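Lecture 7 notes: from sequence to structure.
We start with the chain below.
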Amino acid sequence: MVGFEIGAVPHNPDGWGPPESGSAVLAVANHPSNVPFVPFSRSEKLGRIADWTRNPPNAARPGSRQGGYHAADSAFDFSGDDSFATLAADEDSSFRLVDTSAKSHHHNPNRPKFNPRWRFNAQNARSQLPQRRDEEVEARKREAEKERARRDRLYHLNRNQMPQRRESAVFKSSVDIQPEWNMIDQIPFSTFSKLSFSVPEPEDLLICGGLEYYDRSYDRITPRNCRPLERFKSRNFFKVTTTDDPVIRRLANEDKATVFATDSILSTLMCAPRSVYSWDIVVQRVGNKLFFDKRDGSQLDLLSVHETSQEPLPDTKDDINSMHSLSVEAAYINQNFSQQVLIRDGKKVAFEEPNPFANEGEEVASVAYRYRRWKLGDDMYLVSRCEVQSVVDTNNQRSFLTLNALNEFDPKYSGVDWRQKLETQRGAVLANELRNNGNKLAKWTAQALLAGADMMKLGHVSRVHPRDHFNHVILAVVGYKPRDFAVQINLNTSNMWGILKSIVDVCMKLKEGKYVLVKDPSKPQVRIYDVPQDAFDNDYVEEPLPEDEQVQPPVEEAKAGETEAATTVDDIPTEEINDKAA
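Predicted structure tokens for the same chain:
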């Protein structure tokens, strides 16, 4: 049997702890002499176990109990001893932590710039990489100079191609202010921002005209399978003012309301703070009634283009992209678009009375006039003639539609190419149109709300070529609910009615007579002028404009080399504006 041998414990008669290593008593097998015992592994934390020879640091501490026990006075406590602080610091300094988190992509100005040419050119890579800090600084300076030169080239290139900023553009008044006119009041648009008024649901007094059904196949049009825009020269469109409407005259004689207007006039007033171009509305105060009219050949018959853009349109009268030429082009596009997207099979939805402006046997456009009445006060009612262009049956319910078209004339001005963005980034196209044509979209939305339309269809019509303003294609048709679209474009209906109510209250305080509201061409305000009773009549003579300031539309060149005579919009009768469609 193998026995267990207990090792000898050396005795140190000179003090505490084991004897010196050189002592013969400390003869341990397999232990080299004169070699101190130290831990060879960093994980072995060896040190003193107890020390009864040291002076307790808290022996004379005030408040300590004599003879009592204190944790810091224990011979086994080394919390206050820094004997191993140096060793721990040396050991900790040898450790390095590795950062495994995702690297941040903050720009380091001292980092050299690597371009694709440097990356794939292995022979010159070492020579192109700066080796010293001064070379790195010089490299950054050279890159900054190149970038600055590139920005300067682009700036001058865009400045030469694009016209001057909108701030430098000077607009003309929509009507010539005559010397005998007396300005009564001017209302800044800043007073309209906080107005609010709620009206109850309107009632339909009468519906006239006839509507054709909407062709749903146009909802599937894309820029890849676009359709050319047709021309409808045989159909007549009517832009009759308020006092020339026989139905409104009949309702006025029956005392159905105190204020009378059309939807285009009301939308112009409701969206006045968004307008940039000048416009004018004639106000007639007759007895206790108020009539809002438009002049013959007024800008209200046309559509503004690029009105709220920061870049102005060219002011050359012969330019096809001038303000007036684009307004005429947009009016023709809207008329033709509103008739092309219909099912023209002869089926129409007839209403109580036929079109009040058409002669017997005359072909008219698909339109229905809804004469609606709103209550503005205790004894104040508003009657307006509102238009809808089409109808559709959904779940055995009849829904009214309004049809309008946005037109693209040159992507260089709009900044967005519809043919590339309509399919993938339709929201970006709409946002760009809200920036460039915010007033027009707001007026269309207000007209749809006034007419009680269930859906408003917006078409995207573009030129076949940017320099061809006679041929167009339909790229897409998008439908919106008027109330949802009003929220999307930040159009507050309560503020709309508040603006209209404030203008009506101001006009009701005027004496009997004729007045004109004029939007200032250069300031966000509207002015009220007192004009003679025969103003804007056929026999009223105004000071003619100089010939060089009269804008003429462009002349279309015939294919056979013949040219047609240019005709101004003022020479075109309002009822037959479609007969001159380009």
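Points to note: Confidence is low (pLDDT under 50) at residues 116-130, 162-168, 539-582. The first helix runs from residue 85 to 93.
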